[in-house]
Amino acid sequence: MEFQTPPTIIGHGAVGGRKEAQGPLAADFDQTFDDTALNTQSWEKAEAQLQKEAVALALHNAGLKPAQIDFIFAGDLLNQCISSTFGLLNYQIPFLGQYGACSTMAQTLLMAAIMVESAAGNTAAAVTSSHFCTAERQFRTPLEYGAQRTPTAQWTATASGCVVLGKGGKVKVTRGLAGKIVDLGVKDPANMGAAMAPAAADSIYQFLSDTSTSPKDYDGIFTGDLGEVGTKLLLGTLRDNGVDLSKIHNDCGLMLYDREKQDVHAGGSGCGCSASVLCGHLLRRMERGELANILFCATGALMSTTSQQQGEAIPGICHVIQLTTEARGS
Amino acid sequence: MEFQTPPTIIGHGAVGGRKEAQGPLAADFDQTFDDTALNTQSWEKAEAQLQKEAVALALHNAGLKPAQIDFIFAGDLLNQCISSTFGLLNYQIPFLGQYGACSTMAQTLLMAAIMVESAAGNTAAAVTSSHFCTAERQFRTPLEYGAQRTPTAQWTATASGCVVLGKGGKVKVTRGLAGKIVDLGVKDPANMGAAMAPAAADSIYQFLSDTSTSPKDYDGIFTGDLGEVGTKLLLGTLRDNGVDLSKIHNDCGLMLYDREKQDVHAGGSGCGCSASVLCGHLLRRMERGELANILFCATGALMSTTSQQQGEAIPGICHVIQLTTEARGS
User: What pTM was estimated for this model as a whole?
Assistant: First the structure.
């Protein structure tokens, strides 16, 4: 999809937890919380609170009130997306729940862009979140077990990111691609990077081919959240198909934490990882003029504990968004 | 949202299980299955198969191949929407996962309509499903317990419905409204009708008011799935606000089963209930000219077992779609 009158980002907000505040992108968060429960009674309520805060900051940044937002697209990793429901309940904005696992930030942004470009609304917001503690107990083992993590495992970010789209912002949503579900049979739930890398390769290859562009046309191609294992697979797969991404690629899962000092194994993950890296770090760099033309390619692993227990593989998906600023732009 | 060049329904498919095949709408299903496991090894795989079959039938009906569909919007009640992922995996259609609980059919239809109207794609499909056995064991108790159901409980339909949108069909998607999350504090998970009725009242009232229309302008206003309890609350709430829906209202949850003969308590529910009633019964009636202008108002309860256990209420949501045929139309 190429947007004829590209919607622009008129506000964004990124929030994170304690570990995120100790990482290399700490300064790019709008707000971080030292208490991972955010003074609520459960981690689930805390995750909902993260979305609420991210939306509040993005709205403040855009100078808008909730009633001025025509639609909000939101989703998260929790069963039935309850972080979104309970986090956004009080805003009373027409709500369209999305599920794309860790690809949700790209998906919500894509949908919001379509609403604004098609004039279905003047403004639309996109938000997602994840929380280390809610994800561990839902998808893996209760934290109290103290289970040992494998080297391929990634660390679910405790974070949320929100963008508000409308007219007049500096960063434009220029193009978008909705990915297909890709399943190469990877079954190890402790190796999500490997499960999602084929989808990332598929969508990025398709995008470059559809637009007749090559990696050198971009200032950066950012996947999220392949981590170390998935990144190697992505770069290798694309290299085998004649595309060298190595010079301008980075992965949100590798950017959010300092893997030397922070015990995150293969990198960060979770909807909140790529969401907070985009809404904090990347958009700030674009606004400062350091990046003028990037691809944001969030990846998701479409599985549940039930599908795992029933022996299904882990299908992946990747949606691609091109963001540009006037500085380079057309 | 009012569609300037309304997308049309060019194909639809509805499938159901044994209980649905014994109900009053049996003849309107494209296919029903006597074996609730659909020859698969689990109910979850069976539910994925229901979506796959509904899409196959809708595509056949539209005379299109999967590669001719530009986007598919899908969602279901299972954790992480695995029925959609595994059901649609092999179609290789760009996939955008939606979560709106039982409102998903209206939501996917709305999103598909926006994609076609905005020319983001020439065609788009919308599909959702539910399965009594997967829903019971995920949300309530394992079937093996033989737990007794309360009179307010509804029966999750084992069914799926799919529509394909494009140009040239008889039934047009004329207008749509994305609902807000409404939470009046209902906490009983065995009374979803009561939890969703306020959202239905809110969205229908808003739609009538936005369009300056009244119930008599429509041949039918169909909610899904409020059941008996929710329907009474909806009619009462709207009556208190000066809107009399009683003459032209019906609820998909009350239409799918014969409550005298079939033991479904307060009525049917689940994404597949309103989806199959729309894609089987209602669209056939529109094509036969029996209905020319209807509102389809699917309702969802946005909760999870975790939110329940943590004492949260059950917020509801309702999206409204207006469908018209030339017969009456403009």
Answer: 0.95
Chain A residues touching residue B318 (CB < 8 angstroms): none
Q: How close, in Å, is residue B111 to chain A by CA atoms? A: 9
Mutate one of B40, B42, B77, B96 to test the A interface: name it (highest A CB count within 10 A): B96
DSSP letters for B218-283: -SEEEEES-HHHHHHHHHHHHHHTT---TTTEEEHHHHSS-TTTS--TT-EESHHHHHHIIIIIIH
ipTM of the complex: 0.93
Using CA coordinates, name the residue in chain B closest to A110: B96
Min CA distance, B1 vs chain A (Å)? 6
Contact A316, A199 (CB under 8 A): yes
Which CA distances in Å does B97 have to B52, B72, B217? 15, 8, 34
Interchain pair A1, B307: CB under 8 A: no
Q: How many other C-beta atoms are found inside a 10 Å radius of the C-beta of residue B90? A: 11
**A89/B41 touch (CB, cutoff 8 Å), yes or no:** no
CB atoms within 10 A of CB A67: 9
DSSP string of A171-188, one letter each residue: EEEEEEEPPPPB------
For A306, the closest of B44, B93, B98 (CB atoms) is: B44
* Integer Cα distance of B278 and B17 in angstroms: 16
CA distances from A37 to A64, A146, B139 (A): 28, 19, 26
State whether A94 and B179 contact (CB < 8 Å).
yes
Q: Is B306–A94 a contact, with Cβ atoms under 8 angstroms apart?
A: no
Tell me A135's DSSP state. Answer: H
Contact B111 A96 (CB under 8 A): yes
CA distance A198 to A175: 21
Q: Render each residue's pLDDT in chain B as its tens digit; 330 residues.
A: 999 999 999 999 999 999 999 999 999 999 999 999 999 999 999 999 999 999 999 999 999 999 999 999 999 999 999 999 999 999 999 999 999 999 999 999 999 999 999 999 999 999 999 999 999 989 988 888 888 889 999 999 999 999 999 999 999 999 999 999 999 999 998 899 999 999 999 999 999 999 999 999 999 999 999 999 999 999 999 999 999 999 999 999 999 999 999 989 999 999 999 999 999 999 999 999 999 999 999 999 999 999 999 999 999 999 999 999 975 444
Chain B: closest CA distance from residue A80 (Å):
6
